[in-house]
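Dear Dr. V.,

Thank you for agreeing to look over these. As mentioned in my earlier message, I'm a first-year student in the group and I'm still getting used to reading structure tokens, so any feedback on how I've presented them would be very welcome. I ran two proteins. I've put each sequence directly above its structure. The first is here:
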Amino acid sequence: MVETGGGFYWLIDTTQRFTEFPWAVAALDFCCSAPPGLIFLAFAGIVAGIRRRRPVPMALIAPLAMAVSEFVVPQLFPCGQWIPRRGIRW
């Protein structure tokens, strides 16, 4: 969460400058940068939970935990930089 928020600290000022939204609305927009950070939070939680119970090597846990995190978080918070496939014709 800190990594993502730190990377997008400029979002509040940019939102205010180009949309003329009040600070509170721009800050709410800034909070939308949190879901990508949740991927890393979920990854760390999965890894810590498994490693607390069993001494499984990170080489086995990390890919699975990252894949699960990257699948679950966008399902819960459907926002991001991707373009939805629906309605796009190439």
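The second protein is here, in the same arrangement:
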Amino acid sequence: MGWQLIETAPKDGQTLIVWVRGWHPVPAKYQNEGKGWNEDQPGWYAPIEDVWITPTHWMPLPEPPK
């Protein structure tokens, strides 16, 4: 499965790989409850980077190694 438009991404809290224009692919998840300065608004959060982001595309995480 290749990159898909972010509008089609699941918003059920699962971690996905997302693409942010001008940046790099990053694991992120949609959070219905905000955190920190964004506590009142849902959105895409990249926990590794500890930032709220505006991705344009997404893809599922690959299968882990066996």
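From my reading of the second output: DSSP finds no helices and six strands in the chain. The mean pLDDT is 88. Does that match how you would interpret it?

Kind regards,
E.
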